[in-house]
Design a protein that fits this description.
heterodimer, A: 81 residues, alpha+beta, four-stranded antiparallel sheet, B: 426 residues, 0% strand, cell membrane (chain B), transport (chain B)
Chain lengths: 81, 426
């Protein structure tokens, strides 16, 4: 689920099935944004029951979506409106 | 005055002026200045090498290696999030808890490294709370300089003083400086709350988000965590015992670093070495060379004689002069070159008959380390935090920082003056 968070965009993710397959991919996306030298581009938060949220700065929105696509965590991307 | 002494002063002042302007990197200036001291024949190469303090350099390199490996485990993020949950997700409490973690971290690692580790975590927490990160960062900068003052390894001025004066052991720094640091931190915590509580309000939902954060998964490498924490703990224990073991602190830190590399495997070596701040190490080398020119040509001895003349050799006046001069100078200048110049001067005062140098050393340590809080350019930790914050879109303005930090710095020096007077001078 995607929502507005001030100027940022917040993604709420929950892994329901195939956790052993999806979690490493999610970790890889997180590692990608944590290894660069911008600290606030995409901030990941871990919650119980495989719930995650990511606060994404607007200028890194496309890159975040591309990373999700690259790791096949998204099947389809569509602009609305 | 001899021609060589005049050259030593000219080269030193020119280098100092260029360091202050910040137009050219301070390491390049210090190294070139040091090389000119040799090339101009002020001091020969052999003598300069004797002035380069391997103990300071070895201690810094060893600790940088240990901390860089420990940081890779995710430990600092874990501690910060755990503490934020314990603070019930409330911004003011989190700000205080993060300040205290920064102070303790700075005492036992070093303040620059601690700031490098704390700033990213702070952004992560304040983003979740949707509060301004600047009060958190300012309180952490101030706490890092205060905490770093408490131990021999916490702040570069202390490393230099501890290295130059063999009687000032790791334990001596703790027993002499930690009590006043605890008092200063307690006063600062109250003032931090008063100054910033209205600027960092959040909603109950966001507080709840912090409370729900999961801690599992933050530690990225448990085996490495056990290895690095074991070695870090043993290294700190060895610092306490270094005089009893007849080991210099550099030998302790470098032993810890290389035993840890032995345990973790050589694949970590390249990465750990790349994280050593070589610019800082070479800055020290250049400064030692620059100061050697002043020492060998008798300039430092002349300055010491003038200082004794000014204070009439009175211990109270000399201690207060050193404490306040160090604090004001360190607020506006880099405290590392200042301390590099003051150390031989105090040693020279001892040669000239000043009996009890101990209050002078503690005055120098307190003045130089706490004085760094006065302005944004006063200490390396300040500049690094401001740089990181500015890059993320939250610039810390020089004046905004000054208005908060300078009065706090003066307060800490007033408290230190009372402490030094009551403990050593009556």
């Amino acid at each position: 689920m995607e929502s507005k968070n001030g100027e940022d965009i917040e993604f709420h993710l929950q892994v329901l099935d195939h956790a052993e397959e999806i979690l490493p991919k999610l970790k890889a996306v997180r590692a990608f944004f944590e290894s660069d030298d911008v600290y606030t581009d995409v901030l990941f938060y871990i919650y119980p029951n495989h719930r995650y949220s990511a606060i994404v700065r607007p200028e890194f929105y496309a890159e975040f979506v591309l990373q999700l696509m690259k790791h096949r965590l998204l099947k389809r991307v569509e602009w609305i409106g | 005055m001899e021609q060589q002494a005049i050259w030593a002063i000219i080269i030193f002042l020119a280098a100092y002026a260029l360091i202050i302007t910040e137009k050219i990197h301070r390491t390049i200036i210090a190294m070139l200045g040091g090389l000119i001291v040799v090339a101009a024949g002020v001091v020969n190469q052999e003598t300069v090498l004797h002035h380069i303090d391997f103990n300071t350099l070895g201690l810094l390199i060893g600790m940088m290696i240990i901390v860089s490996i420990t940081a890779d485990t995710g430990l600092f993020k874990f501690i910060a999030i755990w503490a934020s949950k314990k603070a019930q997700g409330k911004p003011v409490r989190i700000m205080i808890v993060l300040s205290l973690i920064t102070a303790v971290g700075s005492a036992f690692l070093d303040n620059v490294t601690t700031i490098l580790l704390m700033v990213p975590v702070t952004f992560s927490i304040t983003r979740q709370l949707r509060v301004n990160p600047i009060p958190f960062l300012i309180t952490q900068i101030i706490s890092s300089n205060v905490g770093g003052t408490a131990t021999l390894i916490g702040d570069p001025p202390n490393i230099m003083i501890g290295s130059a004066v063999k009687e000032l052991t790791f334990g001596a720094f703790i027993t002499n400086l930690t009590p006043i640091i605890i008092i200063i931190m307690a006063v600062y915590v109250l003032l931090f709350i008063l100054l910033f509580r209205k600027q960092i309000q959040t909603t109950p939902e966001r507080t709840q988000n912090i409370m729900e954060l999961e801690l599992t998964g933050i530690i990225t490498d448990k085996k490495l965590l056990v290895q690095s924490l074991s070695i870090l703990g043993l290294t700190i224990l060895a610092f306490f015992l270094h005089q009893m073991l007849h080991l210099e602190s550099a030998v302790v830190a470098l032993s810890g670093a290389f035993i840890l590399l032995l345990l973790t495997g050589e694949h970590r070596m390249e990465d750990a070495f790349s994280k050593v701040e070589w610019t800082t190490i070479f800055f020290f080398i250049g400064l030692f060379a620059l100061v050697s020119g002043l020492v060998e040509t008798g300039v430092i001895a002349d300055l010491a004689a003038k200082a004794i003349e000014l204070t009439d050799g009175d211990p109270v006046a000399t201690s207060m002069l050193i404490l306040w001069l160090s604090a004001i100078a360190s607020a506006f200048l880099d405290n590392i070159p200042f301390v590099a110049t003051m150390i031989p001067m105090i040693q020279e005062m001892g040669n000239m008959g000043v009996q009890n140098l101990e209050p002078l050393w503690w005055s120098l340590a307190l003045g130089a380390c706490l004085g760094g809080n006065g302005t944004l350019i006063g200490a390396s930790a300040n500049l690094i935090a401001a740089g990181m914050s500015g890059k993320e879109g939250y610039p810390i303005k020089f004046l905004a920082y000054f208005k908060v930090a300078f009065p706090l710095m003066i307060l800490s020096i007033v408290l230190s003056s009372v402490y030094v007077y009551l403990r050593y001078l009556i």
